[in-house]
Design a protein that fits this description.
Elements (H helix, E strand, L loop, with lengths): L1 E2 L10 E4 L3 E5 L5 E5 L9 E10 H17 L3 E3 L6 E18 L10 E6 L7 E10 L2 E20 L3 E14 L2 E11 L3
Parallel strand pairs: 1-6
Antiparallel strand pairs: 2-5, 3-4, 5-12, 6-11, 7-10, 8-9, 8-10, 9-10, 11-12
Length: 189
């Protein structure tokens, strides 16, 4: 799986959400909306990016996107401003449930986190958020029962799989180029 080159888009990106919903409307005006598909795949994002870069970087981006168009493959990309690292505390009391407390954690059930237990004897790794108690507390499931507590650092990468179905390149000045591209989030194994 290819990863988009380490070239950052210009400030001013646009992000749209496109929830997969199905709506049923009844004669009496009642309307029922349901999210369609797997929970983690129900709200794909669409980003419009502008890259104001050197002509060399523009050629790198264009070559990468041409290759993805030719092999019909998605690519890994982390949109600017997505993902974060936060610190807090954790506790595990004789079960596989690890309770993590971080002020305004911003995670949701099903998010994949890289967790570094900076103190205590819990095992670091990648975990899915099992439940969210409130805006400051959530749980993950450890591989084994234990009793631990200490400090923790969590990272939500923000990386996802994307396709770029169209882009344009202009060269307004000598050795400068502008690429405008639309990245659509896709969900693949």
């Amino acid at each position: 799986m290819a990863t988009f080159p380490s070239i950052t888009p210009t400030y001013g990106q646009q992000k749209r959400s496109a929830p997969n919903t199905r709506t049923v409307r009844f004669a009496d005006g009642y309307e029922h909306r349901i999210l369609f598909g797997l929970a983690a795949h129900q709200n794909p994002k669409i980003y419009n990016f502008t890259f104001n870069v050197s002509e060399t970087d523009a050629d790198t981006i264009e070559g990468f996107l041409d290759s993805r168009a030719n092999d019909s493959a998605s690519f890994t990309f982390t949109p600017p401003g997505e993902g974060f690292t936060k610190t807090g505390t954790y506790s595990q009391s004789g079960s596989t449930t690890v309770t993590i407390t971080i002020s305004s954690h911003g995670v949701a059930v099903g998010d994949e986190l890289t967790i570094d237990y900076t103190s205590g004897s819990a095992t670091d790794g990648t975990f899915l958020v099992a439940s969210v108690t409130d805006s400051n507390v959530f749980t993950v499931t450890a591989a084994a029962s234990a009793t631990n507590s200490g400090n923790v650092s969590i990272t939500l990468s923000g990386a996802g799989q994307y396709v770029c179905e169209n882009w344009s390149k202009s060269i307004p000045y000598n050795n400068r180029a502008t690429i405008q591209a639309t990245f659509r989030e896709v969900f693949e194994p």
